[in-house]
């Protein structure tokens, strides 16, 4: 009886020495390939409380932070000046620079001497956190170090209109580009090395390289070949292999066949000393004369007489349309040197583009340090063209009337 009971229990519970059949685990999903970083991508800053944001275009504050946090060996920053504010979007960037220096990344910072004297606090702060600082002094030639760019690990670069200023990351419309193209990054690295040496670099620093750069660099964008050309100004301060920006601008204007759209902060036909300078103005007039539709979008800071003089005359030319773009003041109140469109870019025929740090005044190309990028290819040009259309057709703009008297906006 006991034997029968035991056998019955075994039949119900199963043999303890035989594992119950297991359901096969589902096969893991195939690994998704990691998308390669694009060789070049547009970056913007939309002013807060405006409709000028483009969700598909990353913001400079995020891009700068990612580049700095990802640095492994070196960060070279050449900027006009640094101006921070508590709680602003620049603070995490400065903290990331300090953290990079503390973990052994070599960080070098080059700023303009004249503007360092106006904004010394953040530069001195970084210098106290293992950042090596130099100041570039171009006052003897009536110029400034006006470029705004960064090179990380000699493989990643950023160039754009953004100053290293909390306002440029929150309250000003800006355009830039992140570039991961070796020859292009190498060109900007050469500019930095030359300026670093001229500003009192280390005695044992390596000399600026003179081997030829393969420019323009050729990359694949949107399934087509695009050409990217880094440039700099002024002509007499160019390192070997880096072309001067002005002739490249003139060549693209003179090559325009259908359309030419340009946005800049200011536009002048005289140098700061009052002598005429019409190189770019003449090129735009030539383009309009041969039937190219020319449109300019300039900031309301150009309502000052120094800029208005040339703009009024240009607006009278057939085939040229000029609008002011006016960024409304912040709901928090007036912010000095802010709430303005500061972007500097051009789109030609929807297939060629320029992004730079120069306002369209002669001094920026002939006496001051600036840098720029030329991109020949539809992918960037078409996207930049849509950004221009969003601005030019927005409620923030007003057509320039050459016969109207304008009141300059409050700037400071």
Automatic annotation (TrEMBL):
Residues 141-168, 337-364 form the PLD phosphodiesterase domain. It comes from the Bacteria. One of its GO terms (molecular function) is catalytic activity. SUPFAM superfamilies: Phospholipase D/nuclease. One of its GO terms (biological process) is phosphorus metabolic process. Transmembrane segments: none annotated. Gene3D superfamilies: Endonuclease Chain A. This is PLD phosphodiesterase domain-containing protein.
């Amino acid at each position: 009886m006991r034997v029968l009971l035991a056998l019955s229990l075994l039949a119900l519970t199963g043999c303890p020495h035989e594992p119950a059949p297991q359901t096969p685990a589902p096969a893991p999903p195939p690994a998704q390939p990691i998308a390669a970083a694009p060789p070049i991508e547009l970056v913007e800053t939309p002013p807060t409380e405006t409709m000028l944001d483009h969700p598909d275009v990353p913001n400079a504050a995020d891009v700068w932070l990612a580049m700095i946090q990802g640095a492994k060996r070196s960060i070279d920053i050449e900027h006009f000046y640094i101006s921070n504010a508590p709680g602003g979007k620049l603070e995490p960037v400065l903290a990331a620079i300090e953290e990079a220096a503390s973990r052994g990344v070599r960080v070098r910072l080059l700023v303009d001497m004249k503007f360092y004297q106006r904004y010394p606090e953040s530069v001195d702060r970084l210098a106290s956190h293992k950042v090596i600082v130099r100041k570039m002094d171009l006052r003897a030639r009536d110029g400034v170090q006006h470029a705004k760019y960064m090179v990380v690990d000699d493989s990643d670069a950023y160039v754009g209109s953004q100053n290293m200023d909390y306002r440029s990351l929150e309250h000003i419309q800006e355009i830039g580009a992140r570039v991961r193209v070796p020859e292009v990054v190498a060109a900007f690295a050469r500019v930095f090395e030359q300026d670093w040496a001229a500003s009192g670099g280390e005695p044992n620093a390596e000399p600026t390289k003179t081997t030829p750069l393969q420019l323009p660099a050729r990359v694949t964008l949107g399934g087509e070949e695009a050409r990217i050309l880094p440039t700099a100004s002024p002509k007499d301060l160019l390192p070997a292999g880096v072309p001067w920006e002005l002739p490249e601008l003139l060549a693209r204007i003179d090559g325009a066949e259908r359309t030419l759209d340009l946005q800049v902060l200011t536009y002048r036909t005289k140098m700061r000393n009052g002598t005429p300078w019409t190189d770019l103005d003449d090129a735009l007039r030539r383009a309009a004369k041969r039937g190219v539709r020319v449109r300019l979008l300039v900031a309301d800071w150009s309502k000052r007489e120094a800029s208005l003089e040339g703009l009024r005359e240009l607006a009278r030319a057939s085939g040229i349309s000029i609008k002011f773009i006016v960024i409304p003041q912040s709901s928090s109140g007036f912010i000095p040197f802010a709430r303005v469109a500061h972007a500097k870019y051009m789109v030609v025929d929807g297939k060629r583009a320029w992004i730079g740090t120069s306002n369209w005044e002669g001094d920026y190309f002939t006496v001051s340090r600036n840098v720029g990028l030329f991109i020949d290819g539809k992918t960037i040009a078409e996207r930049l063209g849509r950004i221009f259309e969003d601005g030019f057709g927005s409620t923030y703009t007003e057509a320039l009337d050459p016969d109207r008297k304008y009141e300059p906006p409050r700037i400071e």
